[in-house]
Design goal:
Number of helices: 12
CATH topology of the largest domain: Rossmann fold
Largest sheet: 7 strands, parallel
CATH architecture of the largest domain: 3-Layer(aba) Sandwich
Shape: globular
Length: 293
C-alpha cells in the first residue's frame, strides 16, 4: 500500500514509518520543516510539505494514498482549544477526502475506554476535538476509519513524552515523587510494539476497530517513581494529591489518576504480541538520562 502518514517525523510517527517501510509498503510523510523532510526522505519515504493547518496538503496526501495514518497533533497545553480545533478539522478533511473509497484511515487516540467501548470524548470542545468519534461518523460514507488508542506512555530510548517530563521534575526538585500512595497505574507500550500494531491495523482491521496499543495493563506510579529514583540516585517520596500540580506542573493533574487499560481483545484479533522492553526496563537502561520535556 501507499500510506500517507501525518506526524511522520514524530516520536510514534517515525517508528510507524520504519515499520511500514520494513513491511514493504510505500510511505509519504507529512512534514513541516527541512530537518523533518530530510529525516523522512533519508529512510526512503516520500515527503509532502504541510501541517495541520494546511488542509489542502492533508486532502492531497489522503486522496493520493491507499491508506492514511493520522498521528500529528499540536499538543499545545497552553491553548488546548486551538489544538482540539485543529485536530477535528484535520480529521474531517482527511475523512472527507476518503468518502466512498473504503480505504483504511487510522486516527490516533487514547485508552480511556474499554476496547469495545466508544471514546468518551464527543464534540469539538472535548479532548482532541472528539476526533475518534468524528472519524467514525464517516464510516457510513465508505471510510474505513479505525482508532489506534495509545497507552499514556509510549516509551523507548530518548522518549521525550510524559515520563521524560516526570524525570525532569525529579532532576529539578531532587526527589522522585508519586502522588498519594502511588497505587494507581499507567498503561504502557514500547514504541516499536505500538508501530507494529498500527501496521497490523492497516492491513487487517475493519471499519470501527479500536486497537489498544497496551503492552503493560498498568504500571503503578510508585513503581515508575522508584525506577526513576534508582536511575538518578534520588530519594523517592509521596506528594499529597492537593500538592501534585504544584510539584509536577500540568502533569500533576493526571499523574495521580489511574490510567490502566487492556489489550486482550486487540491481541487476539490481530495476532499482536508485544515484545519490547517494559517501561521500568527502559528507565533502568537509561532511556531518560538525557531527555527533557
Amino acid at each position: 500500500m501507499r500510506v500517507f502518514v501525518t506526524g511522520s517525523s514524530g516520536w510514534i510517527g517515525a517508528a510507524v514509518v520504519d515499520e511500514l517501510l520494513a513491511a514493504g509498503h510505500e510511505v509519504v510523510g507529512l512534514v513541516r520543516s527541512d530537518a523533518a523532510a530530510d529525516s523522512v526522505a533519508a529512510k526512503g519515504a516520500g515527503v509532502l510539505r504541510g501541517d495541520l493547518d494546511d488542509l489542502d496538503s492533508l486532502r492531497r496526501g489522503a486522496s493520493a494514498a491507499d491508506a492514511t495514518v493520522h498521528l500529528a497533533n499540536k499538543h499545545d497545553w497552553s491553548d488546548p482549544g486551538e489544538s482540539n480545533r485543529a485536530e477535528r478539522a484535520a480529521v474531517e478533511t482527511i475523512a472527507g477526502a476518503l468518502i466512498g473509497t473504503d480505504r483504511p484511515f487510522v486516527v490516533a487516540s487514547g485508552v480511556l475506554a474499554g476496547e469495545d467501548e466508544p471514546s468518551p470524548f464527543v464534540g469539538a470542545e472535548s479532548m482532541r476535538g472528539g476526533s475518534e468519534n468524528r472519524a467514525f461518523d464517516f464510516i457510513d460514507q465508505g471510510v474505513r476509519a479505525m482508532a489506534a488508542r495509545f497507552a499514556p506512555t509510549v516509551h523507548g530510548m530518548n522518549d521525550h513524552g510524559f515520563i521524560a517530563y516526570i524525570t525532569g521534575v525529579a532532576r529539578r526538585t531532587g526527589v522522585s515523587a508519586y502522588v498519594g500512595d502511588g497505587s494507581h497505574a499507567w498503561a504502557a507500550v514500547h514504541r516499536s510494539d505500538a508501530a507494529r500494531l498500527v501496521r497490523l491495523g492497516l492491513e487487517q482491521a475493519s471499519a470501527g476497530a479500536r486497537l489498544h496499543a497496551v503492552a503493560e495493563d498498568g504500571v503503578p506510579t510508585r513503581a515508575i517513581a522508584e525506577a526513576i529514583g534508582a536511575r538518578l540516585d534520588l530519594p523517592v517520596t509521596s506528594v499529597a494529591p492537593e500538592a501534585a500540580v504544584e510539584h509536577f506542573g500540568f502533569i500533576g493533574s493526571f499523574f495521580g489518576r489511574d490510567m490502566s487499560s487492556s489489550s486482550a481483545l486487540t491481541r487476539a484479533r490481530y495476532g499482536w504480541d508485544p515484545s519490547g522492553p517494559t517501561l521500568v526496563d527502559d528507565i533502568a537502561a537509561g532511556a531518560y538520562d538525557v531527555s527533557e520535556h
